[in-house]
Structures are given as C-alpha cells and as structure tokens.
Amino acid sequence: MSPESTGQNEHYLRVFWRGFRTWRGNRPFWAGLFTMVGGLPIAYFPYANMHLGNITLAMSTTAGAGSLIIGVLLVTLGLTMWFHHIVRVFAGVAAILLALISIPVANIGGFLIGFLFSLLGGALSISWAPGEPKPDVVDAGAEGQTSEDAGFGTKEPEPELQSTAAVPQQPEKCDTTVEADGGRHRAG
What we know:
Blueprint: H1 12-25, H2 29-44, E1 49-52, E2 55-58, H3 64-83, H4 88-105, H5 107-111, H6 113-127
Antiparallel strand pairs: 1-2
Helix pairs in contact: 2-3, 2-4, 2-6, 3-4, 4-6
C-alpha cells in the first residue's frame, strides 16, 4: 500500500458532502429550498397563537384551510423542484401564483415572509437551467502530440460576412505568460 493512494482513508462526512454538492448542482436546489421555506409560514400563522405575557393573540382567520392548502402545495412544489427538476418551469410558475394568492388568503402571505420566499423560489426555479458539461481539454504535453495537434499555432478560419446577419465576435485571446514569481502573489 502506498502512502500516495487517495480515497480509501477519506472521512465519510467528506464523501457525503461531495455527493451532496454533486446532487445539489444538478437541480434548482435553492429554488426548492426558498419555496419550501416560504410555504411554512403561510401554513403556520393562521393556526398559531402568540402569547404576550398573559395576553393570547389568535391569528386564525376564516381562511385557515386555504392557508394550509397553499402552504402544503408550496412545500410540495419545492420538493418537486428538487426531485423532479424536469418540470421546474411549471413548478416555478405555480409557486409564484400560489404566493400571489396567499396575500389575500393567508394573513398577507404569512406576514410577507412566506410570500417573499415563495416568490423568490418560483423565480429562481423558472430561471434555472442545467449546466453544460465542459469539453475535454487536450493536454499539450501528452504523449506523441505536438503543439499543432493540440490546437496551438493553428489559425481559426475567418467568418464569412453576410449582408443579412450580424458579424459574430471572436473572444479576446488572453495573455498566458507566467510571471517571474510563478503566478503567486507576494503575500503567499
């Protein structure tokens, strides 16, 4: 067994966290979380009693069942965003509509806390798009390759100018020269 082998002595929490980060990156995680957090105060406040010393404030309204349904639906939509992210646009639109409906039905949208969280979660869900995988980068120092094989030193073809289309812009080439200190700043 070599001391350079990696992975077998790794702590289980680190393995779990890495798996969670991968899972979280493949779906609209924050959208689902904000939507679920927004659904909780909308469902809770109509059934809550607040005690101020000897005084009990009952915040229940006649639309308590409607508030409970809206809150449960928002939590369900948040879980849908997590576990069935194909329908993220539908879930986002539904979360925004339920957040707007909660303003007159559920104590001003759970005292605006639930409304704002649900609105933000729905907007994040609509705007989320899955990431594109990065193309494999060819290493210039690989066996049997020259710098021309790796794409260095080749000239890109000039785009043809068309009278009806805009000219595509080429990205700027960045300077890849290494500084004298190896790319490190002076403090490190």
